[in-house]
């Protein structure tokens, strides 16, 4: 920048140009000593920045995979170096908030997923609830995630954390996927999932009920990981003005970003929709 200005106005000294542009002389000489970046390097840095802007929670490995999917020949070491230089490494912190009330008299069920190996979609769904902060209150999000593909098969946002919240999310999932009898429905031991109404609906769907142990979020880790992604890459980056605003943006993120575009390391760096499509093609 200063070098270009000096070439246009050679009568001005470097010191005067630095004063006009409000930078130090040491900064100028440091910049002068840097090698010029070739157009490919500039384009790569721009591509990395665009991916990080679209997926703020991506670390360097996911950015590398997305670049490769976009046609770049690049390894993760180079991407990591560039992201460090450009301060693009994810700095979001992990947060856990409990929304589970397991103090109830309803029946508890064993964990059926503990030693189960899944090899297809709709063999098991994991269900959970989290909260979303609005300017003056909280709202609650219930979701169901396919345990094999990580696809979000159903969700519901509500002002109340009750059985109706989880029931509506379940109805959306059942309508969208029509699972066969024997589906494993896995959740925590919260009252919303143990209630008579919810258990009755699972029985109608001929689902098998599975629950995580109390106080052990890692037995429902896939749902927890989904909520972490949702909050870090959507909720924490926005200020929702209203319930409708939150519902619209969260729905868009789940359908258009998480299910359709976001790469998952556990899926071989494919989005859930693409992973399910590849599985279906393999089965034909």
Percentage of residues in helical conformation: 40-55%
Low-confidence stretches: 1-12, 93-98
The assigned structural class equals: alpha/beta
Number of strands: 5
What's the gyration radius in Å? 25 Å
The pLDDT mean sits at: 83
Provide a count of the helices: 12
* Main sheet strand line-up: 3-2-1-4-5
β-strand percent reads 5-15%
Principal-axes shape call = globular
Biggest sheet overview: 5 strands, mixed
Q: Termini, distance in Å?
A: 59 Å
The arrangement of helices and strands along the chain is: HHHHHHEEEHEHHEHHH
Describe this structure in words.
With 284 residues, the chain is an alpha/beta fold. The protein is 45% helix and 12% strand. The protein is built from twelve helices and five strands. The protein has a five-stranded mixed beta sheet with strand order 3-2-1-4-5, sandwiched between helices. The longest helix has 16 residues. It is globular.
Task: Using brief descriptors, characterize the structure shown.
globular; five-stranded mixed sheet; alpha/beta
